[in-house]
């Protein structure tokens, strides 16, 4: 006797495959955003019970994985470092990070703002909350490990690096901290992600460049090309507080800076404009993409202003 439900399911799959819908359903969508700073006005916004990510909720929901840069310490302990700005968010922000992000990068110039022990306690908080992270760890080995996503039969590795001062935030054998983007480390980590972890796709997520520069520096370009030459399939950067240029190198995309995503304290159009990058990977590992523009309000909260398609 024919199982009609099974028969109809097979028939439906064949129709989808023939129409191309099946192939599209196997595409992988990754969404990357830039700097997420949850101290200051964004922190007060969250304390008041509001959701800073709400305008982008539908985009995040349709993505297989979402990734952002956590541009602050999360915790209540530690002693502030001597530097112009120190950023620390209350642990009340963790449920919102968990709700929207598959993983966050700790590789930046603010996660060490309250010292290595506060950094270590932040990792404990993230682990307890079930929030994945990369680009930082309790020692240099763990800081340089990729986050691995298994999605629709593919293994995707993302590596995070800080390539901006202070280097004192770097993880060492006996010190928690972030992964420093030394050229030799970059090449070795990318190779390991491919050869040891069996990644089909490797994406690097560096924190680099000079604040306010709209065009990537020669150093950024050198390192981006090194990453691609070492086996990376895409480079997605941040830190300058503005968006930067996009380059295609050897057929691979380089987004030098996505700019701010949640961040208060800025007063220019460029510093209050960020990008949410939606990257699509098909079954042949071909990468296509589109950009959603984020406009930050007076509280540093992003509003989704729609799509900017293709290279700019």
Topology, element by element:
Layout (H helix, E strand, L loop, with lengths): L3 H16 L1 H5 L2 E9 L3 H8 L9 H5 L3 E6 L2 E2 L13 E2 L4 H7 L2 E3 L10 H14 L2 E3 L1 E2 L2 H4 L3 E5 L2 E9 L14 E2 L4 H13 L5 E7 L10 H12 L4 E3 L9 E4 L2 E4 L4 E3 L10 E9 L5 E10 L5 E8 L3
Q: Helix coverage percent of residues?
A: 25-40%
What CATH calls the topology is Purple Acid Phosphatase, chain A, domain 2
Could you say which overall geometry the principal axes of the C-alpha atoms support?
globular
**Average pLDDT figure:** 93
What is the number of helices?
Answer: 9
Query: Would you identify the CATH H-level superfamily?
Result: Metallo-dependent phosphatases
Helix-strand topology string: HHEHHEEEHEHEEHEEEHEHEEEEEEE
Low-confidence sequence ranges: 13-19
**Radius of gyration based on Cα positions:** 20 Å
Shape-level CATH architecture: 4-Layer Sandwich
Broad CATH class: Alpha Beta
**What percentage of amino acids are in beta strands?**
25-35%
Number of structural domains: 1
Task: Explain this structure.
The chain is of the alpha/beta class. It has a single domain, classed as 4-Layer Sandwich (Purple Acid Phosphatase, chain A, domain 2), CATH 3.60.21.10. Strands 1, 2, 5, 6, 15, 16, 17 and 18 form an eight-stranded mixed sheet that branches. A hairpin with a 2-residue loop joins strand 13 and strand 14. Helix 8 runs parallel beside helix 9. The longest helix has 16 residues. It starts with a helix and ends with a strand. 46% of the residues are buried. About 2% of the residues have low confidence.
Summarize it.
By secondary structure, the protein is of the alpha/beta class. Helices cover 27% and strands 29% of the residues. The chain has helices spanning 4-19, 21-25, 40-47, 57-61, 94-100, 116-129, 140-143, 183-195, 218-229, and strands at 28-36, 65-70, 73-74, 88-89, 103-105, 132-134, 136-137, 147-151, 154-162, 177-178, 201-207, 234-236, 246-249, 252-255, 260-262, 273-281, 287-296, 302-309.
